[in-house]
Write a structure and sequence with these properties.
- With 68 residues, this protein is an alpha+beta fold.
- It has 2 helices and 4 strands, in the order E-H-E-E-H-E.
- The protein has helices at 12-25, 51-60; strands at residues 2-7, 30-34, 41-45, 65-67.
- Strands 2-3-1-4 form a 4-stranded antiparallel β-sheet, covered by helices on one side.
Length: 68
């Protein structure tokens, strides 16, 4: 499944802050940020429905995140 989120992660330094947490919580998923997109897209490829977990994690570490 592919999930797409709108975020306020708008720089490489913010991606570096998020990376360890995403890798820890979702070790079997592929994900990436598109910082050139106006919505600062976070795209996930995984087998499970992770929408609520991603949104919760991003908010806990101080970022906005909503599913598109």
């Amino acid at each position: 499944m592919i999930f797409v989120f709108k975020t306020n992660v708008d720089s490489i330094s913010k991606v570096k802050k998020v990376t360890p947490k995403l890798n820890q919580l979702f070790p079997n998923s592929k994900w990436n940020f598109d910082l050139e997109d106006c919505d600062n897209i976070l795209r996930f490829e995984c087998k499970d429905d992770i929408i609520e977990k991603v949104i919760f994690l991003m908010k806990v570490i101080g970022f906005e995140c909503e599913v598109l």
